[in-house]
Amino acid sequence: PGIGHNLQEHSVVLVRGGRVKDLPGVRYHIVRGTLDAVGVKDRKQGRSKYGVKKPK
């Protein structure tokens, strides 16, 4: 699951809470569009959760 990412070994990310049901022990999500985590490209709906600006 997921929409790809640009993260590398020493990337700095902003973390929020939120469980992932199918991954035991994972209780965090990365905030897209902040620090080193870029937003999702070509996202049209549900943009605020993925750090995407309103398309022109």
TrEMBL record:
Positions of transmembrane segments: none
One cellular component term from this protein's GO annotations in UniProt: small ribosomal subunit
GO MF: structural constituent of ribosome
GO BP terms in the entry: translation
Domain of life: Eukaryota
InterPro entries xrefs: NA-bd_OB-fold (IPR012340), Ribosomal_uS12 (IPR006032), Ribosomal_uS12_bac (IPR005679)
Keywords (A to Z) from UniProt: Chloroplast, Plastid, Ribonucleoprotein, Ribosomal protein
Similarity-based family: Belongs to the universal ribosomal protein uS12 family.
Name of the protein: Ribosomal protein S12
Native organism: Ptisana attenuata
